Amino acid sequence: MAQQFQSSRRKRGVILSSRGWQRVQSAEQKSAEQDNGSRAYTLDQLSERTGLSPNTITKVRRRRLAVDRQTLEFYFSAVGLELTPEDYISLDPDTANVSRSQTPLQGQVPLDSPYYIERQPDEQIAYEEVLQPGALIRIKAPQQSGKTSLMTRILASARDKGMREAVVSLQLADSSVLTDFNRFLRWFCAVVTHSLHLPNRVDEYWNEVYGSSYNCTNYFERYLLTEIDNPIVLALDEGDILFKHPILANDFMAMVRAWNEKSRYGNDGSELWQQLRLVVIHSAESLVGLPFNLNHSPFNIGLSIELKNFNQEQVQELIQRYGINNHQRIAPDLMSFLGGIPYLIQLTLHHISNREVSFSQIKEEAISTNSIFSSHLRNLFAKLQQSYPQLIPLLQQVVNASEPIVLDPIDAFNLQCVGLIRSINLHVEPSCMLYQQYFSQVLRRF
After folding, report:
1. pTM for the full model?
2. Domain that residue 173 falls in
């Protein structure tokens, strides 16, 4: 009987391919337009249509864990599609067939990528927090640590709950926009309006008699938040760019903080502002010498998520996803040399999985000009020289020490924000062996 039951169980081991994910998204959107008043399906609605649990649907969409093929068939059938072999990727050990790009991951990890690793419990906390009225989530970490990748998943989770979303990448703001606060806020309102697929009515609500912050707040209060019934998740990406313009940053952050406070007044207007959920993304290094008053900014309120580096278990899982054997043996070496730094781990595994080089070769050439890390290391050193020269003597102390040392807490905080060191109780050491080797060499002449 036990054998019969075992053989009849569905074998788990597939995830959606990029093609499959695009097909099902498009079909789901068309189905919602026809059968749900053009409103995106909620997880509960999809569960009813597919016969799958909300948790299983979430698992299919995130593509982090494998499901069985029949699950995908149910999902596809519910939105009028027939599942084909091109729609999924096998992750079973015996039939692993994850397609690999010829270039390593750069920037945001796509929603449909099998190489995204969740860092729990922080991510689940963020998914739950964005559902709270008036939520404000701050995501910080050194550059290339996965902040924007997490942001896109928070937005996807919110979208699954029927919420609307607007993403403002401050990287798209022209320099002329960033030098004039009034022009910046008009640009900001226009971008949010466009993201929400609403008509641009900035001119109608802008009155030069009032200040720019008031006009922007009024535009949200009288138009955007009243025009849309569902909660709106507003994500501000690349917040570091604002900090290069201290006066603008100070005024803008004070306004964002005021919005969050409006949601807690307990009056009629509070209910309206509770519909707005804010997600602010910025590099941890932007906290080095903040150009604005912390008490007037959103940086000491809301939920703060500081993304950590990968741990050994997460590195092992990523090694498996790249189809590399002996993951239990390789993972400790990767952790020891690269410290779990996400970008460096992904870069290394990409080159190993494409059979370009072995890990032992990578370590031997780690700080040479031909190293796979050479561009990253040069950029890091250039940033240190140009933006944080005051940290160079401190970093010298750390990399030249034979064991973890004690630094002034503020100095340690600044070095850690840039991603160069890690703390061990009250002591600090280089973030990884790679950084120790490289900076101990290049800083000799200083």
Report:
1. 0.75
2. 122-306
